[in-house]
Design brief:
three-stranded mixed β-sheet, alpha+beta, about 170 residues, Nucleotide Exchange Factor Grpe, Chain A, domain 2, 2 domains, three-stranded antiparallel β-sheet, about 45% helix, elongated
């Protein structure tokens, strides 16, 4: 093999039959692929953000009002206990003490889970939270004052879960 001045041998290179891509074709393919991947990335990112937002709202709603049905189940029991407590017993003091104990425990339970009562005698009637079952006229009280309560109202974490059923003064 013949050598050049710097000692490197000269060899004839074999012709390459493979087509070399032109710079513009290669660049165009990369740009197209980059645009496709970028579009796919943006769509997936938007889809993920929508999914995350929906799930966050759903979880928030579930956690906020998770015990509403349980509380509603207790309400008739509480009403019955209150009716029993308002009945006069002459010789059943033990029964009344037991009922009071149960009622106190239920009140503590509700207090612990953020259930509050409303609808007491003397309050002003608010149609957003009170249901006027009857009206009576009593000159000793102002108009729209609650004279008697049939059933107390209940809120759970600032949401009214049952309106108070009341008798309202109409002068």
């Amino acid at each position: 093999m013949p050598k050049t001045k710097n000692g490197v041998s000269k060899t004839k290179s074999k012709p390459n039959n493979k087509k070399k891509p032109t710079k513009t074709t290669k660049k165009g393919d990369f740009e197209t692929k980059l645009k496709e991947l970028n579009d796919k990335h943006l769509r997936l990112k938007a889809e993920y953000e929508n999914f995350r937002r929906r799930k966050s709202e759903e979880i928030s709603r579930l956690l906020q009002y998770d015990g509403e049905d349980v509380i509603k189940g207790f309400l008739p029991i509480i009403d019955d206990l209150e009716r029993m407590m308002n009945t006069e017993y002459s010789d059943n003091d033990t029964l009344l003490e037991g009922i009071n104990l149960v009622r106190t425990k239920i009140d503590k339970f509700f207090e612990n889970i953020n259930v509050e009562t409303f609808g007491d005698k003397g309050e002003e009637m608010d149609p957003m939270i009170h249901d006027a079952m009857l009206t009576q006229e009593n000159k000793e009280f102002e108009n729209d004052v609650i004279l008697e309560v049939f059933e107390k109202g209940y809120t759970y974490r600032d949401k009214v879960i049952r309106h108070a059923k009341v008798i309202v003064n109409k002068v």
